[in-house]
Amino acid sequence: MADGDQHVLVVDDEAQIRQFVRAGMELGGYRVTEAANGGDALREITLHPIDLVILDLALPDIDGSELLERIRGWSGVPVIILSVRAGETEKVKLLELGADDYVVKPFFMSELLARAKVVLRRQSERKDGESALRLDRLVIDFASPEPAQIGVGAGACQQHTVLTHLRSQAATENRGRSKPTQDPADRTRRRLPAERSRLARPRAAGLAFQRILLRRNEHLIQT
Length: 223
Prior knowledge:
Radius of gyration: 40 Å
CATH architecture of the largest domain: 3-Layer(aba) Sandwich
Strand content: 15-25%
């Protein structure tokens, strides 16, 4: 039995088929909405949360395969095809377009209920799997009973806590960072003594040379 919160949309142009499917699905514990054409089906899927679509292919306004393509363009809601078309090629085509299952008319209601249950269980498992965040080769599983676990690489057998990983990553990034940019004024102040010393050397040499010339000139004058 379903939990009563799962909402099924039955899309078929034949009222008797819709009523038959509705009665069986409601007995199975599902809430059911009916749509007689593709336009109404798209409106229901857009405006209301739908957990499962049971879709006939022979609709008056659009072929069911085209409707499936439109749905798959923006929604991952499970779709079970319900059709008299029993050819293998047709089944393969619809499954490749994104149908989750294919039931051929005439059918037993017990079979449709069983298939609906399987499809909804798979969808639930997929939603549960979304709690695992994948960033490139990093997988973080928030649904794990352990403190948020991560694994690196596909099928990694070793796991570490997210905190440990982030600390390690932060330390690596800090080591790779360059030192903070120095204030230009600080660099200038530190250079001034060296610049003064460098500039003083030629000046001192020039003064010494002048003294030598002066002494030489004095010597020449005296002689």
